[in-house]
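Page header: ASSEMBLY MODEL / two components / 958 residues total.
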Amino acid sequence: MKLRRETVMLGLIFLAALLARLFIAFGSDNFSYDAYFNIGQVEGIKANLIPSFNYGLYYSPHPFVPLFHYILAFFGMFIPLQLVLKVLPNLFASLAVFLAYLISLELTKSRTAALFSALSAGFIPVFVLKTANSVSEYSLAVPLTLFLVYLMLRLDKANSIFLLILSVFALALTHSTSLVFVSGISLYVVMLYVLGSSPSRAEREVILFSVITTLWIIFLFFKEIFLLNGFSAIWHSSSSVFSTLNLASFNILDAIYRIGVLTFVAGIFVIYRQVFEERKKGVHILISSSLIVLVMISTGLIGLDAGLIYLGVFFAVLSGEVYEASFAYVRKMHISRNLPVVYALVMVIFLLTSVIPSVLYKGSDYFDEPSSSEVAAFSWLASEPPSSSVVFADLKEGSMVPAVSRHKNFVDTAPSLSADVGHRVSDLNAIYSTKSQVAAVSILEKYGISYLVITKKALESRNITGLDYYSSACFDLVYENSEASIYRSLCRVG
Amino acid sequence: MKRSYLVFGLMVVFCIGVLVSPFFLRISLNVPLVFGEEPYYHARIAEEISGGNIAASDTLVYNSRPYYFGPFQVLLGYASLLIGLDRALVILPVIFGLLSFILFYLILGNFGITGLRRAIMSVLLASSPSFISTFTMSGPHSLAILLFLGGFYALMSRKMKFAGFAVLVSTIMFGLFNSMLLIVLLLGHYLAENRRKMFFLLLFFFSFIGSAAYYLLTADSAFNAGILSSVLSDFGGNGFGIFTILLLFAGVAFTWKQKYSYSIPYFLLLFLMTSLLFAGPFVLAYMGFVVAVFAGEGLYRIIRMRWEVSAIKSFTVLIIACGLMFSTASYVSRIANQGPSQETVSSLEWLKGEEPGTVFSHYSNGFWIEYFSKKPVLMDGFIVSDFRNRYNDSMQIFYSRNLDKTKGLLDRYDVKYIYIDSSMRNGRIWRNNDDGLLFLLGSNESFTRIYDSPDVQVWRYLGR
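Prediction written out in full:
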């Protein structure tokens, strides 16, 4: 059987995207800070078959949807878990290449444009950097979202409905950002009516089913958060606190760089053209989803990085329209013999603005992972009794405490049921910044903290060299290496 | 047996099952059968009525206030003479609920709504959190709703028109809201039936005069929480599950083209939604019936409409059914776990034996303190004359670490006891053990701990 040239090209793009991700993932022995909550849950499922939704070793219950963790734990039974955690998420994320190709082909009917879309989707800097070494649910949620968009475009085809039902369940059970998809398709219906069109009967049925199923699953798993905080849960959850912190440092140029300059410009151009000039029904699913993501980012309903990942992927697929229009223009101008030059030019721009940032961003703040010395310090704590001791660590290091040290943590960045996460974050900063030993000890006492893990990175990020109130009478230095020190708290107030 | 009777029987069994399930759960948890806060206020009034010694004013609130009572408390008082107060508090609302359910079922039949459509609406009503809370927690609205439905049903029949009219007018005794509701109901009925204008005007006149008079004599419950959170049971409210709300929207959308045939439900829905904003969450009890009609219509049309993809239809209906069941089950389990706990009751019965004095606590504990300890409180769930000042002063006492300021406020209200339970410590008021008043209690000789259990602490304030 002879393979088409495009099929070979697509396979090569997929391999390139996968290899780039694996290059990043295996470039380090450890995982990024964000990974440790998921690693802890995967290990928990592997050992006990059920995830830990309740307190366990966390400062408060952390509700989440567990399909991704179950898949990793399942493969972890046959393959070394470390390997599964490094390879499988990247394999899932790289599937975005095929899905972007299929959607773009469906929309543009041009294999060349679809190949460029696939290339864009494979090398979105923020997607690669945030998922390559962080065992992130987004590595599965994003391809599933694209698969659902693809199925929405092919509702008339056999098996589409069956696959769509399965995928809606799978996406809702993978990550709460499944709401991006259902909000996107709901806005799509509104947009169609506004533009004087209407969804087909099958589309309406599928959208109704998707919305109801996703809402039900989200309410089922996150019920406690809603009951505890009422309607304000949506804006006052811990993830929202952290996304607000991220938003404060939002920089549009940085955001464009993280999505990829070419992909961003192409995406914006397609949105403009589709809304004001051309009206292609299928494209509106992606446009409405992109608009929903923008609203969610600006209202803090989704984290900045997560929002940019979805925006990047949607723009990558949309960019196929621009590539197709550009190639058609070149052909129309009767300079088709120059097409290879145009392809090469696009490739060079793309390499400079997406591929290189994706792979060479390592070392920047976006690619944040603990050093081996830091991991060693947290591992050392695992041998310290009792396991119920609360361990203080910096915010991003918080998830390492339960996952690596097997002790209860003080705070972390994973979404939690705690209503006082804001207080904890301010108390955490006070531990680093206060000059008063009494103030520090009263905070430690308030939360029952027995150990403090103070890393060099945490001190450097605050431009300090140590804790001002440190005294050997109150803090026993029990462990030290080049990157981290561990203190046992000895004093009490009063 | 005719199929319609069988369906009716099943509906009644379902309704009974839903209404008694919170009580069975409470028996299994070994906690007092009567749950919630307000039922204990009605219990106290009923106790006084049955004892024949109603005081001129309610002295179990600091500075006293006029009694707030009506037909429900009177009925509860007399029922308690027959079967005992504890039983009356449980049985009466359940019976009212069952009768209301049956009347709703019959009224739907009178409007030509039968078969699957009527069954869906009835199931949605019985399983809605608003219905469950209204007819499991003793309160006047359970009787008011029963009278409304009874009156309306009689009004629709040829032979009992006057009786229906009389029963409907009697509902004005339950408050301004009920009188307004009566007007809207009759307006809707008039428009639907196009009856004689005089008949309608007469009712309007009676309702208006009655409302104005009643409003001047009584006050309604205070402390209305955020409306959205109170509507959605999945967000901690007593209204409806998220799926019922979605079905409500679907029902409105489906029936919009025939809005004139649905004039009464549309009138009522509009009025109740507006009232919810002004009158407070108790309106949800009434809204439940209208929402059941629209949501039921929505679900019925979803089931009956021609679907292009039958697999999607099956899954959608299945998920909706699961979502509705989940909301109901989760709500029943939530209310079954409501206070008062056995420990609350024990601590307050112990406090009853102590010397007289005002008890300071969170207002949500007010009715329990009044009922079990027979001691006055600074505030409870109902309005008092200087409500705003008392509320602000309460907050000062809870959060201030200034001993002089706190003592000054405690002295102003003659507070002798401070009652603290775990819910107050765990977020309702404080988050940390050294916040505000907790700091002062632990570090000052002006306060002595006189009762201590894992869940409850009672402190005596020794004064300046």
